[in-house]
Design goal:
The protein is an alpha+beta fold. The chain has a domain of 53 residues. Helix content is 21%, strand content 9%. Strands 1-2 form a two-stranded antiparallel ribbon. It is extended. The protein contains three helices and two strands.
Length: 94
């Protein structure tokens, strides 16, 4: 799985199979990226190659019949307001 942060133009990745192998991660059904260890850059090549090499063809189970509601913020911006407000904050995305 990959995710991209548009503000910094950085991408992160993780192996879904490895991530959800732990019971706590499977229960939460969330992926939390480590911004240093999961950075999708040239240093990820070795880990990605290892995962790709370990994949073996075989029977694939059909997906579970689970329905979910997807909520996305992909609404088009049709116009902007007449004012734009900016504010400083001491909080960061560390």
């Amino acid at each position: 799985m990959t995710a991209r942060r548009t503000t910094t133009n950085q991408a992160y990745w993780t192996s879904i199979k490895d991530h959800f192998r732990e019971a706590s991660a499977a229960q939460s059904r969330r992926v939390i990226f480590d911004k240093h260890a999961d950075l999708f850059d040239r240093s990820a090549k070795g880990a990605l190659s290892t995962i790709a090499a370990s994949i073996r063809p075989g029977a694939i189970a059909p997906p579970a019949g689970i329905t979910e509601q997807l909520v996305a913020n992909l609404l088009p911006v049709e116009r902007f307001g007449s004012k734009l407000y900016l504010a400083e904050t001491e909080h960061t995305d560390n």
